[in-house]
């Protein structure tokens, strides 16, 4: 099954543990997004979060949140990322990513969203990927989710 959406925000930070800032374009190389502290030779090179997740979380929390505030690298609109599985592929601009992990442990008191609200959306709905094909990306690019055939593999956390 294939789903189509759009890239609404690219967010990077040169240092881990600091707030990400938005950029209009970026290069995804073999290690992740150039200039982002989380790029490297590991399974969580690029993180994604759906715009719909941000809006839903904000409505539930009674607060407004903006793209990048959850430390996601890529914010996408029009794709249900809550249903992705490990092994699914996501094409963004000229780059192709493979989902390696769903969710992550929240940093708790080290997370600005957790400090404001007492919880965060990334532990349940954040999507983490490794780079399969490097390429340039720009805000507004098409995002295509290609779901793998169901192998019965459980979601990873």
Written account of the structure:
This protein is mostly beta strands and 157 residues long. It has a single domain (2-146), classed as Beta Barrel (M1 Pyruvate Kinase, Domain 3), CATH 2.40.33. It contains three helices and eleven strands. The protein has helices at residues 51-61, 112-117, 122-125, and strands at residues 2-12, 21-23, 25-29, 32-33, 46-50, 74-77, 89-92, 95-102, 127-133, 135-138, 142-146. A seven-stranded mixed barrel has the order 1-6-5-9-8-7-11. Strands 4-3-10 form a three-stranded antiparallel beta sheet, with no helix packed on it. It is globular.
- How many whole angstroms does the radius of gyration measure? 14 Å
What does the average pLDDT come to?
A: 85
- Could you spell the SSE succession in H and E letters? EEEEEHEEEHHEEE
CATH class division: Mainly Beta
In percent terms, what proportion of residues is strand? 35-45%
Estimated helix fraction: 10-25%
Number of domains: 1
CATH topology: M1 Pyruvate Kinase, Domain 3
Overall outline? globular
Major beta sheet, strand line-up: 1-6-5-9-8-7-11
Kindly report the name of the CATH homologous superfamily: PK beta-barrel domain-like
Helix tally equals 3
Q: Please identify, by name, the CATH architecture.
A: Beta Barrel
Structural class: mainly beta
How many strand segments?
A: 11
Please summarize the sheet with the most strands.
7 strands, mixed, barrel
End-to-end CA span = 23 Å
Low-pLDDT stretches are 152-157
List the helices and strands and how they pair.
Blueprint: E1 2-12, E2 21-23, E3 25-29, E4 32-33, E5 46-50, H1 51-61, E6 74-77, E7 89-92, E8 95-102, H2 112-117, H3 122-125, E9 127-133, E10 135-138, E11 142-146
Parallel strand pairs: 5-6
Antiparallel strand pairs: 1-2, 1-6, 1-11, 3-4, 3-10, 5-9, 7-8, 7-11, 8-9
């Amino acid at each position: 099954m294939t789903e189509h959406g759009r890239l609404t925000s690219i967010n990077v930070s040169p240092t881990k543990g600091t707030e990400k800032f938005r950029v209009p374009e970026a290069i995804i190389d073999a290690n992740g997004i150039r200039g982002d502290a989380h790029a490297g030779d590991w399974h969580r090179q690029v993180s994604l979060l759906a715009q719909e997740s941000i809006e839903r979380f904000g409505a539930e929390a009674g607060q407004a949140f903006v793209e990048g505030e959850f430390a996601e690298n890529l914010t996408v609109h029009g794709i249900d990322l809550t249903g992705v599985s490990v092994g699914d592929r996501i094409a963004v601009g000229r780059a192709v990513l493979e989902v390696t992990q769903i969710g992550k442990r929240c940093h708790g008191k080290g997370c600005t969203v957790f400090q404001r609200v007492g919880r965060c959306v990334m532990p349940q709905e954040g999507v983490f990927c490794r780079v399969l094909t490097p390429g340039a990306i720009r805000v507004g690019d098409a995002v295509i989710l290609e779901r793998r055939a169901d192998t019965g593999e459980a979601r990873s956390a």
